Amino acid sequence: LGVLAVGQTLLLVAGQLDLSVGAGVSFISIVGAKMIEGGSSTGAVTLVMLVVGAAIGLLVGLVVAITRVQPFILTLGLLGVLAGLALIISSNEPIVTGLTFSTLSLEELGPIPVPAVIFGGLCVLGAVVLRLTRLGRNAYAIGSNEEAAYISGVPTGLTKVWLYTLNGLLVGLAAIMLIARLGAGDPRAGLGLELEVVTAVVLGGATLSGGRGTMLGSFLGVFVLGLISN
Asked: What radius of gyration do the chain's Cα atoms show?
């Protein structure tokens, strides 16, 4: 949830949205589990899962930028496609992966679990991107007023492509962490996760209309949801 919230924050700041992240996590986890089942190395599985996630994000970004279709409609349709593919490839059953990636779930750095370290590190990187890079400033500009940003010379289309690609890369990482946690690729594990992600980010201060949002706020939103869930 935390890893996906980082990517969703980048999108919401720019007034964009991705409702396919839950199905994407399920689909990519199945792809990785199939590779592990076939005897592929951990490094190869990791690379493929990250590349598949980034490729899906890149495709969505290109379609949004070129056709100007509403991201809500596009990613809602993609959710159904990815969820269906996950069920077909896995024959509607979890694929056991054993202790592959178990370090991401079981190990600790001092008193802090590795997943928490990854989440915290990504929040810091996301904050740097939003506050200290041209991509982040462009995202805020597009979210505040896309037409004004375009007239001012902001490459709105290219910015959206980059944001969706980064979000897709984080979906791939979330899928790896899901396999580490479950010890399997589960076609239904990401069900409903997209709504939790949007809830956490909006709870942290972002708006669906764009122009607002911080990584600190999203961090606190994920923390509150996790606390309530526990």
From this structure: 17
